Amino acid sequence: MTHGRRWIRTSLSWLVLLAGACISACNGSAHSTTGSLQRVASAPLPPADQSLVVQFLGAGGVYLRQGDQALLGDPFFSNPPLSHWIFGRPLQVKADVIDAHLPPMNGVQGILVGHGHFDHALDVPYIAGKLPDSVRVYGSETIPNLFAAILPAARLVDLTPHMAVAGEGGQWVYLSPRLRILPIQSQHSPHVGDVVFASDRITHPLSRAPAAMFDWQAGTNLTFVIDFLDAAQQVKFRVFYQSSASPDTVGFPPDWLLADNIPVDLALLCAANYNHVDGYPEGILKALKPRQVMLIHWERFWDDYSTETATPLPGMDFADLEARIRSVLEPSVPVWLPMRGGSIQLEH
Ligand SMILES: [Zn+2]
User: Fold this and answer.
1) How far is CA 172 from CA 37, 153, 177, in A?
2) What are the structural domains of the chain?
3) Over the stretch 111-152, which tens digit does the pLDDT of each residue have?
4) Please, which of 28, 40, 252, 346 could form a disulfide with 342 given CB 3.0 to 4.6 Å?
């Protein structure tokens, strides 16, 4: 399909999606109660000396800190307006918004990118530019190719050779002696029907910076297990991070990891399009048995960035999502629904 035809088809699909979203919102599903989901307002970050602090940044973005070790995943603040992506305009990085809301960058050991869509990757080069050259950006092969004209090759890591696939294999990648990640091959939930927009893999380095929506191709999706380690290399905190919903068993940790008896302290789960894939999030929750859950990517990422207000994504039904979660998890397991800038503190 030519770029032009694909653009027209996708633009029409978005219009259909938004029309459906309006109907859904009018029916009230976008304003469902949050029941046992615990809202978290934006607030200054608590200390993370012995605890793990996890902050929701907006869309699939998260910030994790334990002691002097920190990590960013899919940091995204620019929130380009809907008209810019639908009409193929260049998507702008809003440096002033990022600078106003970016958490402390000291101790950040790396930036993880789950896939190449703009709401996961647009702001990554600007943020990487604020970090020392030794701090690298990690993703599937599409990510280094997407950023080839913007960031030095030495700062870009293709995790493809290290991925666990279909419950097997995978290797730890150490960001520092105290922080390691396990990348896992996953999938992107469809936007409409069985269609995932901009889902190509980018297999060669781009010669120019990505600009319009269709430059931001997803490539292979990744989920991650993130381990914060103590001085004796024992796991202090384990986090599962998924910034796009996937069908049951796809993107799950490999069997060898699920069998190592180290508890999952926190599951960071994508709420967007949760009902476009089978068995989500019941399957992954059953497999992980997490001590706590944080729901991310639940809000409209085309509204101006705000830590005060956010509107749920079209079709987001929190009551239904909660029921799915509670069909697997005991009521005593906290499930957090943070505002942008909201954080939780995990203790041992
Ligand atoms: Zn995406």
Assistant:
1) 32, 21, 12
2) 3-346 (3.60.15.10)
3) 999 999 999 999 999 999 999 999 999 999 999 999 999 999
4) 40
CA of 196 to the centre of ligand 1 (A): 8
- Tell me the C-alpha distance between 195 and 226, whole Å: 30
What pTM does this model have? 0.91
pLDDT tens digit sequence for 38-65: 999 999 999 888 899 999 999 999 999 9
Task: Report in angstroms the alpha-carbon separations of 53 from 94, 130, 139, 271, 282.
Answer: 26, 21, 23, 21, 25
- Cβ(319)–Cβ(335) below 8 Å: no
Q: How far is the CA of 178 from the centre of ligand 1 (A)?
A: 30
Instruction: Give the residue from 142, 124, 112, 129 showing the smallest Cα distance to 223.
Output: 112
| CA 164 – ligand 1 centroid, Å | 20
